[in-house]
Amino acid sequence: MPTTQKQKMLAGELYTAADAELQADLAAARDWMDEYNFTRGLGPAELNALLKKRLGAVGEESFIRPPFHVDYGFNIRLGRGVFLNFNCVILDVVQVDIGDGTQIGPGVQILTADHPRDPEVRAQGLEFGRPISIGKNVWIGAGALIMPGVTIGDGALVGAGSVVTRDVPAGMTVVGNPARPRPAK
């Protein structure tokens, strides 16, 4: 049974982000983002090494163009050859898995953080997270939002600007707000 706020967060249970341990983790992530986002002249290998300092796992040949923003970083796992373009945000209060060969356009937000629907519980400063899983060889277009708890199957395509609120089966193309299967032509 999780007892600390961090353990509760990682388990997807209600927790308070104001906890001292979590605040220290957030501060460490901010320091890392300063290092990663303000490096000049580093090549892919050096940036990959910096990613490995903070993220939970980083596959070979994975590359993220700075600036890149995270809550904690340590809950993010990238497969081999993953690419994220400029200005991506991953709120990783729980696990985010991104499969081999997945490409993510600029300005995409991957959001595991969620909040209670009951306003009285929300007023207590409680929140929780729901993990996100993105399969292999997925393409996510610029400005898309991936909402808490979503799974995107291998080979799927998410159109630019789409808001993904439900699971996307393997090989499917979804577009729009909320994202829905693209009509057949």
From TrEMBL:
The keyword rRNA-binding does not apply. Gene3D superfamilies: Hexapeptide repeat proteins (2.160.10.10). It comes from the Bacteria. It holds the Pfam family Mac. Keywords: Acyltransferase, Nodulation, Repeat, Transferase. GO terms for molecular function: acetyltransferase activity; O-acyltransferase activity. SMART domains: Mac. InterPro entries: Hexapep (IPR001451), Hexapep_transf_CS (IPR018357), Hexapeptide_acetyltransf (IPR051159), Mac_dom (IPR024688), Trimer_LpxA-like_sf (IPR011004). Residues 6-60 form the Maltose/galactoside acetyltransferase domain. GO terms for cellular component: cytosol. Acetyltransferase implicated in the O-acetylation of Nod factors. Belongs to the transferase hexapeptide repeat family. This is Nodulation protein L.
